[in-house]
Amino acid sequence: MKKPLVGTCFAALLIGATAAPATAVSDAPSAKVKAVDLAGTVALSNCSGSVVRVPGSQPGDPALVLSNGHCLESGFPAPGEVLVDKASTRSFTLLNGSGGRLATLRAARLAYGTMTDTDMSLYRLTSTYQDIESKYGIKALELDSKRPAQGRAITVASGYWKKLYKCGVDGFAYRLKEGNWTWKDSVRYTSACQTIGGTSGSPVIDDQTGKVVAVNNTGNESGGRCTDNNPCEVDESGKVTVRQGINYAQQTYQLVPCVGAGSKIDLNRAGCGLPKPSGLR
């Protein structure tokens, strides 16, 4: 994993996107997509994240913050562990387009968190989308409901470091194995995205659409084979490939159908592709 950072930067951070009217969360595509910046990203105490919405989100819905499962304040979830609707008071720092601090926002619940099949956490906030737009001029980033495409130009936007990493989707790993964890259908970046510790949880934004297609989570740092901080790719036949210096993300399109009314996660909704707790399988 792109290791969570602890210590000197123990500041809580949260939510955002781009300036928009406070009266609605619009789903209509804009005539021209603005250049990707840091608006809508957040900084956590140890990672990066972003305020996100699905196409059906309403202005009065509690806003959601997307990050990694390995960035949870409770530590790494065990293999097979899935957390749903847990109490949380975690705080986040909301950033504007240039990385300036706008506000501190707070979670009401951990809506979802796991490191099984994917590496994802989703927090439901005490603020609504309308609150954030009207007070801070920030509009949530939209999650794309479609799978990302190979060859697309992308930006990894880190709220922790206030930095943009530009590269492309090089391809996909059938399985990505790191230590005790295995992730499915991971996005592999081209070599230009040299993400580092603290970029974990950053939104991966399609430069053409401005939508979030994945969440940044790991990279092979020293050429190790399937060890912590050195993930390996495993194909359908079991062949293992190690790509030192290459970084990865987890796709987010399968999250979109799981978000119901009031920004609540319902893993039984049609099309929801997220892993379920053992009791719901």
Structure description:
This protein is 3% helix and 38% strand. By secondary structure, it is mostly beta strands. The protein folds into two domains: 17-21 and 34-142 and 254-273, Thrombin, subunit H, CATH 2.40.10; 153-251, Thrombin, subunit H (Beta Barrel). A six-stranded antiparallel beta barrel has the order 2-3-4-8-7-6. It has a six-stranded antiparallel β-barrel with strand order 10-11-12-17-14-13. A hairpin with a 4-residue loop joins strand 10 (153-158) and strand 11. The two termini are 27 Å apart. Mean pLDDT is 90; it is low at 7-30.
Tell me the name of the CATH homologous superfamily of the largest domain: Trypsin-like serine proteases
CATH architecture of the largest domain: Beta Barrel
Radius of gyration: 17 Å
What is the spatial order of strands in the main beta sheet? 2-3-4-8-7-6
Strand content: 35-45%
Main β sheet profile: 6 strands, antiparallel, barrel
Specify the oligomeric state.
single chain
Q: How many distinct domains? A: 2
**Total beta-strand segments:** 17
Provide the structure class: mainly beta
Task: Tell me the overall shape.
Answer: globular
CATH topology of the largest domain: Thrombin, subunit H
SSE topology sketch:
Elements: E1 17-18, E2 41-43, E3 48-53, E4 62-67, E5 82-87, E6 91-95, E7 101-114, E8 120-128, H1 129-136, E9 139-142, E10 153-158, E11 163-178, E12 181-189, E13 203-206, E14 212-219, E15 232-234, E16 240-241, E17 247-251
Parallel strand pairs: 3-9
Antiparallel strand pairs: 1-9, 2-3, 2-6, 3-4, 4-8, 5-7, 6-7, 7-8, 10-11, 10-13, 11-12, 11-15, 12-17, 13-14, 14-17, 15-16
